[in-house]
Design goal:
mainly alpha; Serine Threonine Protein Phosphatase 5, Tetratricopeptide repeat; 14 helices; 0% strand
């Protein structure tokens, strides 16, 4: 089922004219981090965020403050892991973070390593710390002078590199621009709608523009609708998203959902997968109903 949906999604986005960027947001988490991590779920059930953080140096530091491996790297599409591990020109700090060697990373920062050094694609240590959900490392990089809005070759900042509300909150508290967009005019909110509601709510609460559009005129609401995220569609609508906005090809959030419904084909699946398949179809029908109730005309 997942393979079939991925193929359908790739077909749509490649026809958009900015396929590479779209594929990044379409299956970015699944491709780079197939096993997921605690606290991240594809369900449409909202989850609360724990905000309790112990100050650095406390005897019983929470997991966020410890320098340890958060999870396998979950980078933006321009980070080449082979290059990080083998290219001698890659800054040692970036390589240490990529490998999850927090002892070495901490030592390098304390020793005065350039926290803003980049690889050849403009990626920084802060981006890797964000994608690994290494809150302790991220904080140390920020207080050591890491540029919170440094952009890589695709125009992405660290804010684009995480699906963690805690990391996102920390970046925003250090001045991260929630309005920043990539060279395709994709915003962090457009990427966030593929993940759980706390991240979407956090970005909106900090001023993210719900009606911003990318180079193809596609909005966060259209992205959420196409990804089947009924929870995030509801949040965006309540935040004032235009349910009748049209992209450069006259498409709307409703037309995207209808396309998914009309082209849905239940293939020969195992019982468990078939049940999940039907759930996804119900999600798209729920989104269609929600958009109509919000005043969508087409």
């Amino acid at each position: 089922m997942e393979k079939r949906q991925t193929i359908l999604w790739a077909t749509v986005v490649l026809a958009s004219g900015a396929g590479l960027a779209y594929l990044y947001f379409a299956d970015y988490h699944r491709v780079w981090n197939p096993t997921g991590h605690p606290g991240k779920s594809a369900s449409t059930t909202d989850k609360s965020i724990s905000a309790a953080v112990t100050s650095p140096g406390a005897k019983e530091a929470t997991f966020e403050d410890r320098w340890e491996v958060g999870r396998p790297i979950n980078p933006p599409f321009s980070i080449d892991r082979d290059e990080l591990l083998t290219n001698p020109t890659v800054p040692p700090l970036m390589r240490a973070l990529d490998l999850g060697d927090m002892v070495l990373a901490k030592s390098l920062i304390a020793g005065g390593a350039n926290v803003n050094a980049t690889d050849r694609n403009g990626n920084t240590a802060l981006m890797i710390a964000a994608s690994r959900v290494e809150l302790g490392a991220l904080r140390q990089l920020l207080v050591s002078g890491a540029a919170v809005d440094a952009r890589n070759a695709d125009g992405l900042t660290a804010l684009f590199c995480t699906d963690s509300p805690d990391i996102t909150r920390e970046l925003i508290e250090h001045g991260a621009d929630v309005h920043a967009n990539s060279r395709f005019n994709i915003t962090a909110l457009m990427g966030a709608v593929s993940y759980d509601p706390p991240l979407v709510r956090l970005l909106i609460a900090n001023g993210a523009r719900v009606n911003a559009s990318d180079v193809n005129g596609v909005t966060a609401l259209m992205w959420a609708a196409l990804r089947g995220r009924a929870d995030n569609v509801k949040i965006l609508v309540e935040a004032g998203a235009d349910v009748n906005a049209r992209d450069n090809k006259n498409g709307t959030a409703t037309s995207r959902v209808q396309w998914r419904i009309d082209n849905w084909r239940t293939v020969d699946l195992e019982a468990e997968a078939a049940t999940e398949d039907k759930k996804h179809l119900r999600d798209f029908r729920a989104i269609s109903k929600l958009l109509k109730l919000a005043g969508a005309t087409q």
